[in-house]
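hey
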């Protein structure tokens, strides 16, 4: 009589953790610790359990794993910008790419939450409070953004992209973890480069001044040009259209300007378009510097943009690393990790 297959080998039968433990010759508790990423198991037993998992085709039950680890295996990525902005600005896609790579490497699911208007914050708070994710990564915060209060209220471990407005610029972290670029230092380098090129009437197109990145870049501009004419500063909105509008206003007020430092590459491309429409050559009449070194923006502009490079994708990976490190600590030992400020570098191209 032919040998009957074991139940776990029958078609349609889902192998159990008990079957894995029996095949490996260990207790169910030991098998559970190995499968769910626990420690304290000797290396040769870990190998036996992994071999049994492979042989049986065991797939952990997500609900059971959550009960054991108190983890969902998911992280919310919250961007405090409307959808049209997120999908038109390559900054966001590059940061999400970095986050996604790091989370995937740690078998963690990314859940994207967008903020189209203020009403969406109620939905986001309900979702975070519902226990669907282990932590949150949030970026592009504005001064009056309710998100930090929400994450504190629901007790959600959170890492921010960009320095929140209440966190100190340097020294300590103000009880919050964030990853940011050296916005102020990068702006200083951009303006010094323009001075080195012989430019003296240097304008600045700032980002929205309810965001710390825009404020820090404006401060860097002012660090170098202590007596800058206020008429040479215009506020934009980090979009190409906003850059174009700001550039038009600057030319009306200061037609003798000979250089522009824009707080991001998209606004620089908008400024470039207006300069061309007015018959002004770049860099012959007006030199132009952006910020970001954004993919498919700075290099493809005509002429290609000199810009301040920040490691956008790397910053996304760092955000995810800080959060995962926090989540890997025990529930009672989730101290706020040290924040990270990454260096910037000037990339010289034809616009200066």
């Amino acid at each position: 009589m032919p040998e009957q297959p074991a139940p776990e080998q029958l078609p349609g039968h889902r192998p159990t953790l008990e079957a894995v433990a029996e095949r490996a010759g260990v207790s169910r508790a030991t098998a559970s610790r190995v499968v769910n990423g626990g420690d304290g198991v000797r290396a040769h037993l870990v190998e036996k359990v992994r071999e049994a998992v492979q042989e049986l085709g065991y797939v952990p039950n997500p609900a059971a794993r959550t009960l054991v680890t108190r983890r969902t295996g998911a992280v919310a990525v919250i961007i405090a910008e409307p959808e049209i902005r997120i999908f038109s600005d390559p900054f966001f896609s590059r940061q999400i790419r970095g986050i996604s790579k790091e989370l995937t490497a740690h078998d963690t699911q990314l859940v994207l939450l967008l903020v189209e208007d203020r009403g969406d914050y109620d939905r986001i708070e309900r979702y975070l409070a519902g226990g669907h994710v282990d932590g949150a990564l949030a970026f592009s915060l504005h001064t009056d953004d309710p998100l930090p209060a929400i994450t504190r209220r629901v007790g959600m471990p959170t890492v921010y992209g960009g320095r929140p407005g209440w966190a100190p610029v340097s020294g300590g972290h103000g009880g919050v973890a964030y990853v940011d670029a050296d916005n102020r230092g990068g702006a200083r380098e951009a303006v010094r480069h323009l001075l080195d090129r012989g430019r003296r009437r240097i304008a600045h197109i700032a980002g929205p001044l309810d965001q710390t990145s825009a404020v820090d870049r404006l401060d860097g501009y002012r660090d170098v040009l202590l007596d800058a004419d206020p008429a040479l500063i215009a506020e934009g909105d980090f979009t190409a259209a906003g850059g174009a509008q700001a550039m038009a206003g600057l030319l009306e007020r200061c037609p003798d300007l000979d250089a522009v430092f824009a707080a991001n590459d998209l606004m620089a491309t908008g400024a470039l378009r207006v300069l061309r429409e007015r018959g002004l050559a770049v860099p012959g009449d007006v030199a132009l510097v952006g910020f970001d070194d954004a993919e498919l923006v700075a290099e493809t502009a005509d002429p290609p943009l000199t810009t301040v490079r920040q490691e956008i994708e790397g910053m996304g990976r760092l955000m995810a690393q800080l959060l995962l490190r926090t989540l890997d600590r025990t529930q009672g030992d989730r101290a706020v990790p040290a924040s990270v400020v990454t260096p910037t570098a000037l990339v010289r191209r034809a616009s200066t």
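The mean pLDDT is 88. The chain has 13 helices and twelve strands.
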